[in-house]
Amino acid sequence: MFDSVGGVSAPSSWINGRPAVTHGDTHRVINPATGEAITELNLATAADVDAAVAAARAAGPGWASSTPVERATVLAKLAAVMTVNSDALVAEEVAQTGKPVRLAAEFDVPGSIDNVEFFAGAARHLEGKATAEYSADHTSSIRREAAGVVATITPWNYPLQMAVWKVLPALAAGCTVVIKPSELTPLTTLTLARLAAEAGLPDGVLNVVTGRGDDVGTALAGHPDVDLVTFTGSTTVGRKVMAAAAVHGHRTQLELGGKAPLVVFDDADVDAAIQGAVAAAIINSGQDCTAATRAIVARDLYDDFVAGVGEVMRSVVVGDPLDPTTDIGPLISAAHRARVSSIVNRAPAQGGRIVTGASTPDLPGYFYRPTLIADVAETAEAYRDEIFGPVLTVRPFTDDDDALRQANDTAYGLAASAWTRDVYRAQRASREIKAGCVWINDHIPIISEMPHGGFGASGFGKDMSAYSLEEYLTIKHVMSDITRAADKDWHRIIFAKR
Ligand code: NAD
């Protein structure tokens, strides 16, 4: 753990295998459950980004030329070291995000460790086409090479998981990394880098620079000496990151916002759909890009669904994240809570009916009660825009065509779910809903072996799974002449007189 407030400002950055002396403002990391500072950091600047990129660049050739088994060994050791330190990781994650200890201890931290273990194995499974004579005169082979220096920028909602999703496939592929976590939640990313060093990751392979988006984030995304920019965060910022990377023609991968539909057909198990809708709407206080935000429900089930969701939401325990009986903690900041509540407060003027919630408990942190808005108009802001709070909107549909039309009536395409006992309806929904993940009779679970990533305003490219390894690799074709001929057969196309 770093020094707490009252002591010397702690390093915000990890460069070239050690804590770095950075040159930015001091910054307090706040516990959103109490509004109090956990620690004070000395932020990075654009000059510190230069140092981190230089360290990653210098470490690149050595790490890229390590064998898959050498990389796998370090990453497997990292998973073991994280396991030993999992209580500390849980404590840091809860303190900086305010998420309930059950969520951090049963989802964030073990999920992150599982992802590290997955990529330790994946490092040894690089894929390509068979080496062969695709032309009679040549042998062709494929080389999969590390993309180079990766700049990655992550959000505050699942800080450790988002860091692991970006950093691990990069390291497994042989890339070196500079990561900028959100300045609101940098602690577990800094700990990840420290534990990686303990696991034997060479100096400079993983670097962390904590700073604000508009200076350090911009400097990193637009850095001329990185090769690939990967980002998880909002759609607005993702597009700025893409524009900054485009100046140098850098490859990008973007995981952006979402506005997931949850479609309940008239043959669904309505109790399962109610329970599932609330769980998927309030997880992490709704600060989840795949959270259920638009329930689209068969007219026959609509009233029962609205009443049932309202009842379950009223039973949710909002409070102290350290109490194992707490269901949801606070939102990340006072500013974010003000934004969530202002969107909810404007909903009635746009036709929405507040069934429950839309209020804050009398607690010191930035808490907000689970909220259900029924009868919302398709044009309403609460229905169309990402709120990123524990807020579910609900609308009825008339028939299956209408249900799928409404599900797809969004600029986003990250996740969706369909609730039905009819296998043909389930297949149609999974075929026709435009989203990177469609759950059937569930909503939220993820698994390291399967990809996560969206379409449209939700971005492009994949995190997790072997597909994400592809993001960090280049494909090189090596074509070798096997004829030894100076006068090659194909030269007849060029030299008319031969
Ligand atoms: P954000 O876009 O505000 O910030 C994300 C990161 O970008 C932070 O580190 C921030 O400091 C940095 N940043 C801000 N401005 C920047 C700039 N101009 N240039 C470079 N970097 C900049 O997002 P947030 O509020 O931290 O997180 C919430 C958002 O993240 C939501 O929209 C959510 O849907 C999205 N998210 C998406 C996924 C996914 O996998 N698709 C996962 C988690 C979160």
From TrEMBL:
The active site is at E255. It holds the Pfam family Aldedh. Keywords: Oxidoreductase. InterPro entries: Ald_DH/histidinol_DH, Ald_DH_C, Ald_DH_CS_GLU, Ald_DH_N, Aldehyde_DH_dom. It comes from the Bacteria. It is an enzyme of class 1 (oxidoreductase). Belongs to the aldehyde dehydrogenase family. This is Gamma-aminobutyraldehyde dehydrogenase. It comes from Mycobacteroides immunogenum.
